[in-house]
Design a protein that fits this description.
Layout: E1 5-10, E2 15-22, E3 25-26, E4 61-64, E5 69-72, E6 75-76, H1 77-83, H2 86-95, H3 101-112, H4 119-127, H5 134-145, H6 158-184, H7 197-206, H8 217-229, H9 237-246, H10 252-264, H11 271-282, H12 288-296, H13 315-331, H14 336-349, H15 351-355, H16 363-372, H17 380-401
Antiparallel strand pairs: 1-2, 2-3, 4-5, 5-6
Helix pairs in contact: 1-8, 2-17, 4-6, 5-6, 5-10, 6-7, 6-17, 7-8, 8-13, 9-10, 9-17, 10-17, 11-16, 13-16
The structure holds carboxymethyl coenzyme *A (CMC).
Carboxymethyl coenzyme *A (CMC) is lined by residues 233, 236, 267-269, 271, 295, 301-308, 356, 358, 361-363.
């Protein structure tokens, strides 16, 4: 038997079709030769939410959802979280290989020297309402960067792509911190080139009147690990938005804005914010069983639980739990942790969650850590967007260089009315 081919028999006509199998996949376009009737242009697949459709070939990250495995460019997330730092991991994700010392120094130097933004950006941010959601501010200011870098439209030019990639990785923390400072009514803090990527982010967030901001090394490292964990996650909703918008050859600033907008939703990057609001609403460990009851009745979802791909413990959640302990030693214990632990304990024993393979995901604990670090709840999706930018950019580049790719344009099943004649207003 030829295992590289699928034989499909159309029982209505008796015709047989040979469909090649490559990488465990048949090409949807190969189904086109099968017609459902004489008029039909060819069989299609129906896959809302892309639950069983590979839209690209990728070499960036690998997930085995049943075994709870995540790797960037082949390296296990656990090893990167232990030995690497965010900027080195960002290099790996963008270039495919870990840098040598010289490459690493150059990369750090280049990113550090692109962290400043044009002064006019501050004027946009000033225009937002005092209680504007920082994710809304981030989405629109990153789109606005497109108007500053006209060369960004040259998406077929490798050197131009590299410049925008450096700028985007470097400037996202600056835009994020400006959004926060604006909401607090505090003056913006320019980047400090002597600090690490995450140390500088903390500086731009929290520096007050001191001449030099000194980040707490434990919190700086914890943030670095959190950024590593969020750097890429193959074809999720926001990455799909980045690839889809980028496939029209739009510039990477507006494509990143689209990806960030996709991330904003509570089922994706907005989940960390939703988890914290849920924990606050539950209020105490005693109220946990009542909340679980509501989840099981279908009234609410248990935020921070479940994943399209992971049907096992999210490996990122396991690492985050460890970081939480280190952070709490510095900041004091977040009282919401007890509620989260109790929710997890009950859920992992309950058949409702076990039978649906619902486990804590990366966002179940990240918010508790961010809150302990004095980062306000509505900044949480922004904290996700900063590191994920590198994944979006690597996937965007991969999409542009992939000769299989075309402008993203799904098909539909039309179920609307057949042709009918216009009825004048007086006759309706
Ligand atoms: N609480 C309660 N029930 C759930 C949950 C949940 N969090 N997640 C899934 N289910 C149930 C769902 O009701 C369905 O049950 P049934 O078969 O009886 O209808 C079953 O589990 C399958 O769920 P689904 O909605 O078909 O699964 P999906 O793959 O479409 O959704 C998900 C994945 C992440 C959107 C979903 O699990 C969810 O809404 N989780 C809460 C939000 C969340 O934490 N999102 C963060 C994801 S991780 C960070 C990121 O990468 O964005």
């Amino acid at each position: 038997m030829d295992t590289s081919r699928l034989t499909v028999t159309d029982h209505r006509t008796g015709k047989q079709y040979e469909l090649p199998i490559e990488n465990g996949t048949i090409r949807a376009i190969d189904l086109r030769q099968i017609k459902t009737d004489a008029e039909d242009f060819g069989l299609m697949t129906y896959d809302p939410g892309f639950t069983n459709t590979a839209a690209c070939k990728s070499r960036v990250s690998y997930i085995d959802g049943d075994r709870g495995i995540l790797r960037y460019r082949g390296y296990p997330i656990e090893e990167l979280a232990e030995h690497s730092d965010y900027l080195e991991t960002a290099y790996l994700i963008v270039h495919g290989e870990l840098p040598n010392r010289r490459q690493r120094d150059e990369w750090e130097q280049e990113i550090t020297h692109h962290t400043m933004v044009h002064e006019n950006i501050k004027k946009f941010v000033d225009g937002y309402h005092y209680d504007a959601h920082p994710m809304g501010m981030l989405v629109s200011t990153v789109a606005a960067l497109s108007t500053f870098y006209r060369g960004a439209k040259s998406v077929r030019d490798a050197a131009a792509r590299r410049r925008q990639t450096l700028r985007l990785i470097a400037k996202m923390p600056t835009l994020a911190a400006f959004a926060y400072r604006h909401s607090m009514g505090w003056p913006y803090v320019n980047p400090d080139n002597e600090l690490s990527f995450t140390g500088n982010f903390l500086n731009m967030m929290f520096k007050m009147t001191e001449l030099k901001y000194k980040p707490n090394p434990v919190l700086e490292r914890a943030l670095d690990v959190l950024f590593i964990l969020h750097a890429d996650h193959e074809q999720n909703c926001s990455t799909n938005a980045m690839r889809s918008v980028g496939s029209s050859l739009a510039d990477p600033y507006v494509a990143t804005a689209a990806a960030a907008a996709a991330l904003y939703g509570p089922l994706h990057g907005g989940a960390n914010e939703a988890v914290l609001r849920m924990l606050e609403q539950i209020g105490s460990v005693d109220n946990v069983p009542a909340h679980i009851k509501r989840v099981k009745a279908g009234d609410v979802r248990l935020m921070g639980f479940g994943h399209r791909i992971y049907k096992n413990y999210d490996p990122r959640a396991r690492i985050i739990k460890k970081i939480a302990e280190q952070v709490f030693e510095v900041t004091g214990r977040n009282r919401l942790l007890d509620i989260a632990l109790e929710l997890e304990r009950i859920a992992l024993e309950d058949d409702f969650f076990v039978s649906r393979k619902l486990y804590p995901n990366v966002d179940f604990y990240s918010g508790i850590i961010y809150q302990a670090m004095a980062i306000p709840i509505d900044m949480f999706p922004v904290m996700f967007a900063i590191p994920r930018t590198v994944g979006w950019l690597a996937q965007w580049e991969e999409m542009l260089l992939d000769t299989d790719q075309k402008i993203a344009r799904p098909r539909q099943i039309y179920l609307g009315p057949d042709q009918r004649s216009y009825v004048p207003l007086t006759k309706r």
